[in-house]
C-alpha cells in the first residue's frame, strides 16, 4: 500500500500525507471539508529546511587544514565535512600556499537563521545557507511502441516524427569503443535488479570510495536501491537496455554508457541539500580517480533560487572535470525568469535546464519555461519507463497479457460509452453530468477514442461520480485497479479547482453504489494517502495513470470502478477516461511488470542527460562545455517555443548541429550577440526587421543599430551555410549597477520603505518602524505598534497567532507615517489603517477605515498622501475579483472620511505619488494581462482624474500586475526594478511632457526591491523571503536591528547581509528659500510635495523681534509665523529694520547750573518705545530718567555727550553734544 501512496504523489500531484486522520474530521461540515482539503493541498508546497543546521563553504590552506577543520567558533559543531582540495597526487611548490575550499554541515543550539548570520561574519566563509529540504519534481522491446518520445508514430493523438530521433541516436551511438561514459542519476536511487537496468549499471573500481554501483546518502550505506520509483524511472529513460526482449529502451544504447546510482531522496521523495553535496562530492572524487562522468541528472529542486553560490561552486567544480549538470525546469507552468529553483536556475555554463514538450512538440501544460532561463525542451508527457515495484498497467499489455491479467478491461476505441453509469452513484451536487465519446485518447492506436465526462455548474463541496459495473470473481490475491485519466477545469486557481480519484465500489441489489464517496472520506484519504488522487486545475494535456491495490481478497459479487470528481472551486470540469481495468483473481503482482507512465520535466531531463552521454561518447570528448554546446545545438526548432534554443531535443542533429545563440549584451552602445556556429556571415533580423552587422565571427555578431538598446528583441539569424537560430533577449543598457551605500543586517520581508524627503524609514509587517542611520550604517528602531492596538475587537490570543502583513507601502504626511495593516486570522482577514506620529512619538489607529471605505472587501488598494490628506485608491474586490474605481479621502484635521472623485477605470496594486501639485497613479493592474496601465493624474484644481497618453511596454507580457519601486523626482516619478521594452528597468516619467525615458542605469537584481527617493538619491535594498526576527523580546527603547544581531552572535562583529544601494536622480523635493535682511527664517529647505510647512522669522542680534515686512511666494503675510502647504518652490522674504532714536535737538549749549529737557522719539515696529538716558561725564553734566540735562560748574568749558538708548534690546541710540559755558 505504501508504494502506491508514493507513486501517486510524484506521478499525478496527489495529496498524500503520512499521518492518521483525526476523529474530528467526520463531524465537519462540507464547507469546512473544502477548507481542510485546500489547506492540505497548500501544505504540500512547503519545503523548509533542517532547523539548527546550516551548510557553509569556506576557504582553508593546506597547512591550515592540519590545524583545524573549519573556521567556526565554540558552540558550532561540524556534523559532516567535504574537502574539495586540488588533486593530492599533484605536487606543488609550496603546499602551505595552496588554497582549498571545503563545505561543512554544521549544527548549533541557535536557530538556523542566527547560525547562518554568525557564520557569514567570518572572513574565511564564502557562503552560508540553511540545509534546505529538496524534493522530486513531478512521471525488439515489447513496450517500445508506447515510447512516443523515442519514436512518435501518433501515440496519444500526437504528431508523427515529433520525438528525440531515437533511431538516429541508436545508429550512431549503440556500439562500443571500450571507453566508459557515465551518467550520474542524483535521485531516489535505482532498482539494481531491474531486468532492463542491471546490465547498464556503472561498477565502482575505486579502493577508496564505497558502493559497487553508487551510494545511498540517505541511509548512509553502499546500497543505492530505489524505494520510491522516481530514480528508476529516470534511469530507464536514459539507458534501459534495448533489444533484450523486455520492456523499454533508453536513449543511450552504447554498452559503454553506464548509470551511477546516487540516492539523495528517501522513500517519500524528500531529502536534504547536504545529501546532494554528498553526491557531488562522490562524483568529484570518482572524477579524480579517472571516471568519465559526462552528465549528472537532477530531476529534483528547491524554491530557493537566491541561494546559488554553494551549488554553483559544486556544479562548476565537476563541470571543469567533464560533467554537464542537467536539471528539470519545474512543473508549475511558470516562467523561470526570476522564479527559477535550484539547481535549474543556477547561472552556469555547465548547466542545461530542460522544459517538457508534449506529443505535438508543444510546451507541456505543466512545464516551466523561459526564453532566457530554460535552455531546451524534451518530451515529458506520458513517458513509459522502468519502475522499482510491480505496476498493474494494462494499457501497455498485449491482448494475451490482458486476458491473463485482467478480469475487467475497457477502452473506448469503438466509441461505445454506454457502460458508464451516472445514476445511482451517490453524487452530491446540483450540477449536470454528461458522458460522451471523444477523439482525445490514450494509446498507440492511430485513431483511438476515449470517454469524456463533462460536469457543468459544479459548486465547492460537490462530489460527482460515474461508474463502470463489472462482475468480481473470488480470489485470495490483491485486486488492483488501473485507469488512464486526463482532468481539466475551466480555470486554473491556486491549490487546484478539483480532485479526481478512482475507487472500487461494491454495488447493491439494484446495481447502485452501496457506500458512496463523501467529503469526509476524501479529507481522511488526503491525510492517510490510501487512494491516489490527481488534480483538475485548468487546461491539461497530461494523461495520468492511477494504479493501486483496492482489496486484499475478492468475492463473487457485483462491483464497479467509480471515477469521482471532488469540487473545490465553482467551475466546469472535463474528465477523459481510457483503459480502465481490474486485475484478475489469482494473478500475482509479479506478473504485471515494472513499467509505468509518468509526466513531468523530471522525465524530460533524463532524455537530455542521455543525449549528453551520447555526445561525449560519439565525439570522444570529456570537455563539458563542448558537449553542452553540441547538445544545445541538437534541437528541432519549434516556432514560439519559450526556451532559449526554441527547440526540442532531436538526435538527428548529432552530427550536424544548429547554430546556437546563447546571449546578448550592450557594449559601446551597440548590441553584441554571442553563441556558436554563426560562420563568417549571414543575415540578422530583430523583431522581423533586417539589421546590419558591423562585425561577424563564428561566435560573435555586433549590430549597427543603436536604437535597439533597451528593447526586447526577437533575434533571427540565418548563417551563410543556411542554418537558422532564434532567441529572445533584453538589450538593456546602463552602468553595471548602483552605488553601494552600506550593508547592515537582513531586513525582514513583507515591509516597505518611506521617506520624509531627508531620511529613509522602513516599516516591517510586524509594525516595527526603523530609520536608516547612514552614519552608523544601520537601521535603528524608532518604535513598534502593539497588535492589539492596531486591530480592535480581536482577542490578544488570536492576534498573537495571526499572520501580519502590509497591504500597502507606507506613506509620509505631515510628520507622520501611515500604512494599511492586515491580520490573517485564518477564518477571516482584518485590515486597519495605522499611523505613527513623529511629533507625539505615538501610534494610532484610524478606526473608521474598514467601514467607511469598504476596506474589508478590497485588497491591493493604493495608499497615498496628497496635499495633507490620506487617500485610498482603487483595489480589487476580494469576492468578485473586479477592479475598483472608488477613491476615498481622509481629512486628518476633521478626522473623517469622504468619497473623492473616482477613477476612470479600475486599478489595483498601483502606486500613487504626489509630484508638484499633481497626484500620479502608476503601474499595478487594470485587469488586462500583458498591459502596463497608463498613468492617471489628479489635481485639486480640476477635481478629476486624467488618463495620460504615454505608455510602457513590459518585457514580460505574461503578467497581469506590474510593480516597481517608485519615488518622486523632478517633474514626475522615478522607477527601479520593472523590465520594460524601450526604457530599461531604471527610468523616469515626466508629467509635464507625458513621457517615459530611460535613465543611465540598470537594476540587475533577482530579489524583490524595497526603497524610495530621498532627495537626489533613489535608495533601495534587495530583500529575500526569510524568517522574521523575534521582536517581542526587544526593549521598547530605541534599538538597532544590527545591535540585536550582534547580541545574538555573542557580541562579535557582524558582517554585512543586506545592502543599501543608490542611484542619482534629479530631486523631486520642493524647496522653501529664505531671503532676509537683518535676520533669519526657520523652515527653509526641501520638502515632499504637499507637506505642511511653517516658517518663523527671527531677527538678528540687536534687531527687532519681528520683520517690518514678510512675504511668501510674493504675497504679504502677517504674524510671527506662517504655515502653508507647499506644492512648488517658494521663496519667503523678511526685512528686519533696526530701531531708530531721534532727539528734538541736534546741538545744545548750557550755562553752568542751567537745565534742559531733551525729548527722544523712538521709531520701531515693536511696542517698547521708551529710552534710557546716560551721560558721558556725570562730573560735568547729569541727565535724569526723563531726559533733563543739568550742567555743573565743574563742567565750564567742557563738552559732554548725552545718550538716549532704546529699551527694546536693539541697542539703537541717539546722542547729542552739550557744551557748558
TrEMBL record:
Q: Which residues form the BIG2 domain?
A: 1137-1215
PROSITE patterns reported for this sequence: SUBTILASE, SUBTILASE_ASP, SUBTILASE_HIS, SUBTILASE_SER
Signal peptide limits: 1-23
Q: Which residues form the active site?
A: 187, 230, 602
Indicate yes or no for the key word Signal: yes
**Top class in the EC scheme:** hydrolase
Example of a GO MF term: serine-type endopeptidase activity
Q: Which UniProt keywords apply?
A: Hydrolase, Protease, Serine protease, Signal
Q: What is its EC number?
A: 3.4.21.-
| GO BP term, pick one | proteolysis
Gene3D superfamilies, per this entry? Answer: 2.60.40.1080, Immunoglobulins (2.60.40.10), Kelch-type beta propeller (2.120.10.80), Peptidase S8/S53 domain (3.40.50.200)
Family membership: Belongs to the peptidase S8 family.
Task: Supply the name of the protein.
Answer: Thermophilic serine proteinase
